[in-house]
Design a protein that fits this description.
This protein is about 40% helix and about 15% strand. It is built from 6 helices and 6 strands. A 3-stranded antiparallel beta sheet has the order 1-2-3. Strands 4-5-6 form a 3-stranded antiparallel beta sheet. The radius of gyration is 27 Å and the shape is rod-shaped.
Length: about 230
């Protein structure tokens, strides 16, 4: 009889609620009948995402016979590569508006006022370069990249949170079937995702500097063309 502290066999692993439907006995899947998702050329592994979130993993029940001397890691790598070839959906930032700024209070154009603006622009460029330098010198440990582990599965995420690699322990792999592998891939991914260090704090600084720069440009143009107003 097992004690409560025993780890338990992988084959009788209690499924996570997220994986209940996916842990059922799997039929062979026809690539032509599969909606979206990303798979390897031999139709052994298929991955589904919502944004960068991994939502489902599917492995052919006959994956061992289909490998033909390759590894399951390679099948995951091919599917991940296909997924990461997606074109990122970048939402354009609106051009900042400065309707609340009273540019009428600017001094008239003169050598002195132009020189004052030059000092402001030089300071802005210096701060921009400093922000880029800090970003480039961030230690690798702070890059946001993260690893998750579950049994014989290691999942790696990029600094931006995208799935970048699935590594499988070959000794562990020899004794498990597709549903168990899928379960632990999802568990390892969730562990990695939960500990992901958010990136983008320095991006917020750059966005702020960009907005400040645009304000300076708008003010300078308003000073040069006082009768045209600011769009």
């Amino acid at each position: 009889m097992r004690s409560a502290d025993d780890d338990g066999d992988d084959e009788v692993l209690a499924p996570d609620s997220v994986l209940d439907s996916d842990l059922e006995v799997e039929d062979e899947f026809d690539e032509d009948l599969v909606d979206d998702g990303f798979g390897d050329p031999d139709r052994i592994v298929r991955l589904w995402f919502e944004g960068d979130d991994l939502t489902r993993v599917r492995i052919s029940s006959s994956w061992r016979s289909k490998l033909a001397g390759r590894s399951l890691d390679e099948c995951f790598a091919a599917a991940i590569m296909m997924a990461n070839m997606r074109v990122a959906e970048v939402k354009p930032r609106p051009t900042p508006r400065f309707d609340g700024v009273d540019f009428a209070q600017l001094p008239p154009v003169s050598a002195r006022s132009v020189a004052a603006f030059q000092v402001l622009f030089d300071g802005m460029h210096a701060r921009w370069d400093e922000a880029l330098e800090r970003r480039a010198q961030r230690p690798a440990a702070e890059s946001g990249a993260r690893t998750g582990r579950s049994k014989g599965v290691v999942v790696e995420l990029s600094a931006t949170g995208r799935l970048s690699r699935v590594s499988l322990d070959q000794q562990w792999l020899a004794g498990v079937e597709a549903p168990v592998i899928r379960s632990h891939v999802m568990r390892a991914w969730r562990q990695a995702r939960a500990g992901l260090v958010p990136v983008g704090d320095d991006q917020a600084e750059l966005i702020g500097l960009e907005t400040e720069h645009q304000l300076l440009v708008t003010a300078f143009e308003a000073m040069l063309n006082p009768g045209r107003g600011v769009s």
